[in-house]
Amino acid sequence: MSGHSPSEENVRTEAASGFGDDACALRLRLLQLEEENRALTETVERLQGDRQLLEDILNAIPDKLTVHDRQEHVVFSNWSEEDTYWENQGGERDGTACFGCYFRGEKFCDQCQVEEVFETRRQKIIELYNPKTREFRSITVFPVMRTDDDSTMVAEYVRDITATRKMERELRVAKEAADAANKAKSEFLASMSHEIRTPMNGVLGMLDLAMDTELDEEQREYLEAVQNSAESLLALINDILDFSKIEAGVVELDSQAFRLRKRLSALHTMFVHRAEERGLDFRFSVPDSVPDGLVGDPLRLRQILVNLLDNALKFTDAGRVELAVQVVDRHGGEAAGGVVLEFSVRDTGPGIMEAHQKRIFESFAQADGSFSRRHQGTGLGLAICKRLVELMGGAIALRSTPGKGAEFSFQVPFELAQFEEKAPKRAKGGEVSKAERTARGRILVAEDHPVNLMFIEKLLTKHGFTVRVVGDGTEVVPALREEQFDLILMDIAMPEMDGLAATRAVRAATGMKTPSSVPIIAMTAHAMKGDREQFLATGMDDYIGKPINSDNLLSLIFKHMQGKG
């Protein structure tokens, strides 16, 4: 079949029949031109459609786009008729204008952004603000390189950023309000820390003194139960007051001297009755090779052990629960060295499935849904244990076989602490003689709370120190002018002059019987981050938080008095 049109076939037929060759060639050429015209028309329509599509897309863009040629005439703009067309209202420069001129209400451009981009062929971004309309615009001026030749156009891309800047301003205001609220919260926590810890210091201090008196078995059992409850309340208070630190992911460890066996004995008393009620064999194993005097954070150690022992007793219905402590490493000498201890809590409970062991230390994790229904809890205990052990420089591990119980163990390093094994010999009547107290040292105590003052005075007197007490910071320097003291215990919060101001006064004073360099230990219920650094920067030599642990206080006193000597 021929590919020619019927008209072309007719022309060829006529030529074959003897018609004039010129006429036939003319008609054939005319037909070819008609075909080419149709093709060109289709191409133009297609290009016009593409152009219209591009214009529709550009006009649909919510931002404003304008293109200038080299003579700074507008080649394209997607500003609609409903918009106030900036070119007709803006500034004038050689008969042309740009959006910047219009937006700022200027008539002449000192620095034309369009011209600058023509010259540099580099993109430029500026931001403009109109104080009359209180609007912001971001203008991006960039070169548009033609592909057919070396000529260049410049486009202005204008975006309304008023809403963005408004949101940023609102966020700044909200952040400032949040910072103010956070500051108020921190101040509230600091205040509550002082108000709550101060009476707790009296409770625990007097209990500590009572425990050192002659008691029968029943009295000691009652007082140990009260002491355990008071320490549990203190741990709860500490958790509440540390809430801001937990929010920020910051938990600080304390460092104080403590007796390990005394702490473990209190834990045994805390859980033994619960174990007996469940018919469980409950035992602690601490060989003689484990040192008793340690330096670390006894409350955090207690928190870890309480969590592990509580879980073991909770999930064990028969058999035993055991806490074992052993030495895994030593370094240095016995007097000033260190030790790594391993604490293991074993039980004969149902054990933990291998699939659950991998996530047992995650927050809100429960070993089994059935246990979570039977045994209430947040699922945070083991996650907290893991975090605290790691903060203490150790690691925690789990070994368990389903049906054969579980063992949680952790290793943490401690420094060694030295304690006096015996109190000074008593004179007749059970009191330390005046000569012995003078020989041991003279201590000035500045404290305004009567119960705390009674506890500290009795504790120091009992251990052979001569004690003088004052109730405010204003009385410290006069007392130092009258007598010579070896050390000062300084409360921070006192009514007329606080401990910080009193310390500065001591360091600056002259003409005293006591040297101005006398060691000063801060005693305070303030427990917020940065307090210790502030106290030391003021001129104090050390810091002890309330509630005061008697072992830790005596250890600090011996440390600074021996260093002084």
Q: Care to describe what's here?
A:
The protein has 565 residues and is α/β, with parallel strands linked by helices. It is built from 18 helices and 17 strands. The protein has helices at residues 6-16, 21-60, 99-104, 113-120, 162-211, 217-241, 243-247, 260-277, 298-315, 354-357, 369-374, 381-391, 434-440, 450-462, 476-482, 499-508, 531-538, 550-564; strands at 64-68, 74-77, 124-130, 135-145, 152-160, 256-259, 281-285, 293-296, 320-331, 338-347, 395-400, 406-416, 442-446, 466-470, 487-491, 520-524, 542-545. The strands form 3 sheets. Strands 6, 7, 8, 9, 10, 11 and 12 form a 7-stranded mixed β-sheet that branches. A 5-stranded antiparallel β-sheet has the order 2-1-5-4-3. A 5-stranded parallel β-sheet has the order 14-13-15-16-17, sandwiched between helices. Helix 5 packs antiparallel against helix 6 (217-241) and helix 5 (162-211) packs across helix 14 (450-462). The longest helix is centred in the first third of the chain and has 50 residues, at 162-211. The chain is elongated. The N and C termini lie far apart (124 Å). 24% of the residues are buried. The model is unreliable at 84-96, 367-379 and 422-439 (pLDDT under 50).
> How many angstroms separate the termini?
124 Å
Q: What's the β-strand tally?
A: 17
Q: Radius of gyration over alpha carbons? A: 43 Å
Mean pLDDT: 78
Helix share bin: 40-55%
The major pleated sheet works out as: 7 strands, mixed
Number of helices: 18
Question: Any idea what the shape is?
Answer: elongated
Low-confidence parts lasting 5 or more residues at pLDDT below 50? 84-96, 367-379, 422-439
Instruction: Tell me the structural class.
Output: alpha/beta
Question: What portion of residues belong to β-strands?
Answer: 15-25%
